[in-house]
Write the structure tokens for this entry.
Amino acid sequence: MAYKLDMSMMFAMHDALRRDLERVGRIAGRLDDDPAKLLRAAAGWELFKRFLVNHHESEDEALWPALRTAVAVRPDQAALVDALEAEHAVIDPLLAAIDAAAADPDGGHERFGGLVDELIIELSAHLTHEEKDGLPLIDIAVTEEQWQHFNSVNAERNRPDAAMFMPWLFDGADRERRDSLLGKFPPPMLAVFREQWAPAYAARDLWKGM
């Protein structure tokens, strides 16, 4: 689908979340180690949680309200916005529940696998729902100024972690797509990314070999 709004960063974010969901699933499915302990020790899990929550909070603050106002006279479209926002309320608490199960030495292992499975199912469904139904509605209902405001709010949330966020976002992306997206960043930030942030990120074992 051709969009009038630039959705490239949104799709890059979704791809990064799906990539990390696969890693979380692989850790949770390990039989030779304590998967809860492995996930708790993985720096990649902390980054995944942080950037997912930042993304959802930015949508809740700067995207859904604008979209809801724009479609207020269309009950079916307003219901879609409500549903997308409600999905956040299901997904985000699962992160805390997984951490709690991973830290519980008694019965945590009994809950851990099921909670990870639930996170994978719920977040995967939400990303697909947003891409299939949400983004087309955003494209026709939200103004360029409102879309840029959302992107600015999201960028500001991630700014303190820019040294990790940028290489995290592009981890695993094909070269053509990565270079196209990197062209959207200011040249000084791009230089720092290439010379410092990307090499430092690549040197870290964020997922303990997964």
Observations:
- The chain has one domain: 8-202.
- Residues 8-202 form a domain with the Four Helix Bundle (Hemerythrin (Met), subunit A) fold (CATH 1.20.120).
- The longest helix spans residues 108-141.
